[in-house]
């Protein structure tokens, strides 16, 4: 059976992972039209039916998995936030908070000089927080070193992109970005993050601990995956820890300026002390026991092969 060239090419151009309705429509045109003639080389209908059933089942499984993830998230919300509704209002997105982070790989012999440079930067940052340009700032010393990773970083946060960039401009004009210790860095890079789920205690802390977790969403994760996980899983847990004084600050970040593959997000929190890290882990374990669907819901949206953690000593100030 021969199909006119145009229609045959149209069928062959349809990818296997195309929507099922497109495959059905094209296959019907190819196999059911009366305008072509059967030959011995013609694919048989049972083979076509098996292939179409396979594609339909594949698409159905994908949809069912998304439904499962949604149901897990709903169950997670009901179990975790339901009992707490009397104590806390519904989790909602906040105005975007932008954070500028400069990462540095400083030779070990220069670490003392880096501490002095951070102290010198404080004048600009204190002025910016006093006049409302920024809402927080700090610096970190990485505790778990990697061959190509940073040893230090400094950061500040504002409620607008203009806020973080205006402070950056002040550092450039003051010459603070070209001090000898920064020039000695073997590697340097920057990131700008944005968060819509965050909170903090006002005040300053020295030698606290910052824990960060990096995650990458699966390709078929829903568009609102980070929002769903934040509202139903991350924020309720972090708000409880914040109220207890176990942590001083938390945020769920995505990149405002994409320097990595889209679909990544970070969870950061500042712990008051080393014991706070253990308390956070214990609280997470208890939360997962209380809601067995929490883990599967998170796992249905996140590719754990890309997961990485970060741990640092932190000096921080929040308005």
What would you note in describing this structure?
With 319 residues, the chain is of the alpha+beta class. The protein has 2 domains: 5-81; 97-318, Alpha-Beta Plaits (2-Layer Sandwich), CATH 3.30.70. The chain has 9 helices and 8 strands. The protein has helices spanning 5-12, 20-32, 45-81, 111-130, 161-174, 180-183, 225-244, 274-290, 294-301; strands at residues 97-105, 136-142, 152-158, 187-200, 203-217, 247-255, 264-271, 302-318. Strands 1-3-2-8-5-7-6-4 form an 8-stranded antiparallel β-barrel, surrounded by 5 helices. Strand 6 (247-255) and strand 7 (264-271) form a beta hairpin. Helix 1 (5-12) runs antiparallel to helix 2 (20-32) and helix 3 (45-81) packs across helix 9 (294-301). The longest helix is centred in the first third of the chain and has 37 residues, at 45-81. The N and C termini lie far apart (76 Å).
């Amino acid at each position: 059976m021969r199909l006119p060239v145009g229609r045959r090419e149209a069928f062959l151009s349809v990818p296997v992972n195309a929507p099922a309705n497109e495959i059905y429509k094209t296959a019907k045109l190819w196999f059911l039209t009366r305008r072509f003639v059967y030959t011995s080389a013609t694919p048989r209908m049972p083979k076509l039916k098996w292939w179409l059933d396979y594609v339909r089942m594949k698409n159905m499984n994908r949809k069912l998995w998304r439904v499962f993830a949604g149901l897990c998230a709903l169950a997670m919300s009901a179990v975790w936030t339901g009992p707490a509704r009397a104590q806390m209002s519904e989790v909602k997105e906040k105005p975007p908070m932008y954070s500028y982070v400069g990462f540095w790989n400083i030779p070990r012999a220069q670490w003392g000089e880096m501490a002095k440079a951070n102290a010198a930067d404080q004048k600009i940052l204190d002025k910016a927080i006093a006049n409302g340009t920024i809402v927080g700032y700090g610096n970190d010393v990485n505790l778990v070193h990697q061959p190509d990773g940073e040893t230090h970083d400094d950061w500040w946060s504002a409620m607008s992109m203009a806020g973080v960039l205006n402070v950056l401009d002040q550092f450039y004009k003051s010459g603070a970005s070209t001090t000898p210790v920064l020039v000695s860095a073997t590697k340097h890079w920057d990131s700008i993050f944005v968060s819509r789920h965050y909170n903090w205690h006002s005040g300053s802390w020295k030698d606290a601990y910052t824990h960060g977790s990096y995650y990458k969403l699966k390709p078929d994760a829903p568009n609102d995956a980070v929002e769903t996980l934040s509202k139903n899983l991350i924020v309720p847990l972090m708000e409880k820890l914040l109220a207890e004084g176990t942590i001083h600050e938390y945020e769920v970040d995505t990149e405002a300026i994409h320097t990595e593959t889209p679909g990544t997000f970070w969870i950061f929190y500042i712990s008051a002390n080393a014991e706070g890290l253990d308390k956070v882990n214990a609280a997470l374990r208890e939360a997962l026991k209380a809601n067995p669907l929490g883990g599967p819901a998170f796992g249905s949206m996140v590719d754990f092969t890309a997961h990485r953690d970060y741990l640092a000593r932190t000096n921080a100030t929040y308005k």
